[in-house]
Every structure is written in C-alpha cells, then in structure tokens.
Amino acid sequence: MSQQENHGSTKAYVIGFILSIILTIIPIMLVLNHAMSAVPLVVTIIIAAVLQFLVQLILFMHIRESEKPGWNVMALILGMIFVITIVGGSAWIMTFNSQSF
User: Fold this and answer.
1) Is residue 33 packed enough to be buried (19+ CB in 10 Å), middle (13-18) or exposed (0-12)?
2) Do the Cβ atoms of 6 and 62 come closer than 8 Å?
3) pTM summary value
4) Number of H helices, E strands in the chain
5) Which residues of the chain are modeled with pLDDT < 70?
6) Residue 16 near residue 9 (C-beta atoms within 8 A)
7) Which of 30, 36, 46, 91 has a 20 to 30 A CA-CA distance from 7?
C-alpha cells in the first residue's frame, strides 16, 4: 500500500472502551436496582444508548477523520432514519394496539 491509513491512537481506543463500559453499566445498574420509575428509566436508557452510539462512531469508526466523508455520513443518516422509523413506528403501534376496541 502506498498510502498509510490513519487508524487512531491507543489512547482513543482505551478511552472509547472505558466509556462504552460505563455507558453499558449505568443502565444495567439502574434497572437491576429499580432506581427509577419507568419513564425516567427509559429516558436514561435511551440517552445512554445515543451516547454509546456516538462514542462508537467517533472513537472506533473514525467517522470524522475521513477526507471525503460525504457518502459515509449520508449512508449513516439514511440508516438512522430507517432505525428511528422502525423503532418509532413499532412503539406507536404497540402503544395504540394495546387498547381494546
């Protein structure tokens, strides 16, 4: 290979690993200890999941480091739209389908 690829530093990987573990342990401990009621717990889990997603993108997938990230970012946005639509639509259906007619 004539072009050397930038894969990030060991420090970035260690920081990402530690943050990933913390962002996984916090929701687990909150659920296991019944530390919150249902709605704040779900909000906390969603916030931890979004932060986990950002840590993975920035520190492990190097989404910011490419010279022409246009296609990668566009594909990522499209994937996020699909996921939000599927999860949101499923939650919507489960919420309104639980009522008996």
Assistant:
1) exposed
2) yes
3) 0.67
4) 3, 0
5) 1-7, 64-70, 98-101
6) no
7) 46
Position 31 scores a pLDDT of 94
Q: One-letter amino acid identity for 11?
A: K
Question: Which amino acid appears at position 64 of this protein?
Answer: R
Rounded Cα distance, 94 and 85, in Å: 14
> What is the pLDDT at residue 67?
67
Write phi, then psi, for 48 (nearest 5 degrees): -65, -40
Tokens coding 97: 């389908």
> How far, in Å, are 22, 43, 53, 60 from residue 30 at the CA level?
12, 12, 19, 26
